[in-house]
From TrEMBL:
Superkingdom of origin organism: Eukaryota
Record-annotated membrane-spanning stretches: 24-46
Species assigned in the record: Edolisoma coerulescens
Protein name per the record: DHB7 reductase
Keywords: Membrane, Transmembrane, Transmembrane helix
Length: 108
């Protein structure tokens, strides 16, 4: 039917939605650790940065994308946004079986 599905990882963004997961004081304690893990200061975790994979994916021709890849929004230490494709840990046979099961469910 011409429908395509892709998997994206938007990355980490500090927002009022994020603060609901844990108390604010705990996030403030975790920020230095997150900075060390990500390699970029917290101010790089803006909405424009974490949506890089969504915007990039939207601009691609879906028939040329690898269906077994997850596209990650990433930010370099200097604040440059980029998309990194990472192979998902699923083999093509399992993916095909899942797709066939979804088709069966759709018919029901």
């Amino acid at each position: 039917q011409g429908l395509y599905s892709s998997v994206v990882c938007p990355g980490l963004v500090m927002s009022n939605m994020t603060y609901r997961i844990l108390p604010v004081f705990l996030w403030k304690l975790l920020m230095p650790i997150m900075w060390l893990v990500s390699g970029s200061p917290a101010w790089f975790w803006a909405v424009t940065h974490v949506t890089a994979s969504d915007v990039w994916l939207f601009k691609q021709k879906p028939e040329y994308l690898d269906s077994l890849v997850k596209y990650h929004s990433c930010t370099s230490g200097l604040g440059k946004c980029y998309v990194e494709p990472r192979k998902m840990d699923v083999d093509e046979d399992t993916a095909e079986k899942l797709y066939q099961k979804l088709l069966e469910l759709e018919e029901q």
